[in-house]
């Protein structure tokens, strides 16, 4: 959909999830149609099937790490690209229909992981029930399928639940990063503070294959900000590496690094270049590896080739 801004936004629902709160930070989504989906693969498939223009899905949490279902669903199926990210502070409450005995507590696995210590200390005997989202957990409590849930304060409020315990996160100050995903389209223009996401498949029979991936980035001053490995599912020992690096595909040094990766990897999947949602400045490239150095060197080579 080149040039047409997205107006139909799928997201991990139902209403009241952290994903919905993150989606509402995007002005286009405030104006557009928001389509709650039951889980991340369904949200991404809605984009692949043109039932939505974009999907917002959780990708990484500052305490619990990456969201594996999102990483897997991004690369299994027709290509998709990330066009924006949203970083949202997350905080949790324990909520129930009425105060009383709590024998079962429902929530999303990533939320449960962020309140593990609290639950072990305060509700050691409660059965823990993993469900598809924190807002789905709140609905389960309303429907009587669980005594209590771990959810966002807003989800407790909109579902008419009583908050039993506030601010229950083991690590105050946690944040989750969400990715806005579309069908392949030209990336948003560079802002000077961008991230490029990739998945690389290395040659498993080559010693130092991962080192050569890192070298292609480092020698161009491209800063690696995240690396995760996930099994490809083919057989034991086969992994895909998910990389986030500073910079935009239109920058010379990022482009050269991508070409280098293309040469040394079995396969490279481009997952998009998009603005970082942060106040932090990007790490400056080492001397000789800035964008102007690359532009200078390109001009010099062109001169040599043209006999100038
Ligand atoms: O269940 C939700 O509310 C979500 O938006 C999912 C999700 C996640 O996948 O990490 C998002 C943020 C919180 O860290 C907990 C759960």
UniProtKB/TrEMBL annotation:
Pfam families assigned to the protein according to its UniProt record, in alphabetical order: ACT, PDT
Single GO molecular function: prephenate dehydratase activity
Entry-linked InterPro entries: ACT-like_dom_sf, ACT_dom, Chor_mutase/pphenate_deHydtase, Preph_deHydtase, Preph_deHydtase_CS
Pathway field: Amino-acid biosynthesis; L-phenylalanine biosynthesis; phenylpyruvate from prephenate: step 1/1
Residues flagged as site, Essential for prephenate dehydratase activity: 176
Enzyme Commission number(s) from the entry: 4.2.1.51
Protein name: Prephenate dehydratase
Organism of derivation: Stackebrandtia endophytica
Gene symbol of the encoding locus: pheA
């Amino acid at each position: 959909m080149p040039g047409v801004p997205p107006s139909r936004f799928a997201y991990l629902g139902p209403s009241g999830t952290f994903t919905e709160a993150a989606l509402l930070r995007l002005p286009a989504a405030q104006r557009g149609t928001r389509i709650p989906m039951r889980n991340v693969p369904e949200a991404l498939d809605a984009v692949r099937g043109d039932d939505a223009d974009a999907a917002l899905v959780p990708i990484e949490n500052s305490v619990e790490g990456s969201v594996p279902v999102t990483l897997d669903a991004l690369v299994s199926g027709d290509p998709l690209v990330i066009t924006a990210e949203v970083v949202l502070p997350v905080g949790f409450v324990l909520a129930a229909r009425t105060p009383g005995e709590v024998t079962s507590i429902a929530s999303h696995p990533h939320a449960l992981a962020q309140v593990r210590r609290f639950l072990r200390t305060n509700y050691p005997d409660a059965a823990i029930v993993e469900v598809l989202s924190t807002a789905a957990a709140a609905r389960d409590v309303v429907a009587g399928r669980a005594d209590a849930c771990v959810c966002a304060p807003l989800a407790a409020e909109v579902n008419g639940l009583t908050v039993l315990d506030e601010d229950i996160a083991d690590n105050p100050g946690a944040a989750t990063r969400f990715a806005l995903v579309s069908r392949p389209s030209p990336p948003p223009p560079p802002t000077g503070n961008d991230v490029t996401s990739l998945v690389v498949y290395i040659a498993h029979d080559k010693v130092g294959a991962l080192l050569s991936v890192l070298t292609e980035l480092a020698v161009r001053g491209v800063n690696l900000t995240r690396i995760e490995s996930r099994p490809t599912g083919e057989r034991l020992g086969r992994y895909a590496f998910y990389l986030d690096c500073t910079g935009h595909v239109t920058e010379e040094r990022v482009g050269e690094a991508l070409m280098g990766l293309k040469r040394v990897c079995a396969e490279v999947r481009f997952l998009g270049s998009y603005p970082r949602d942060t106040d932090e400045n990007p790490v400056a490239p080492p001397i000789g590896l800035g964008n102007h150095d690359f532009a200078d060197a390109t001009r010099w080579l062109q001169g040599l080739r043209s006999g100038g």
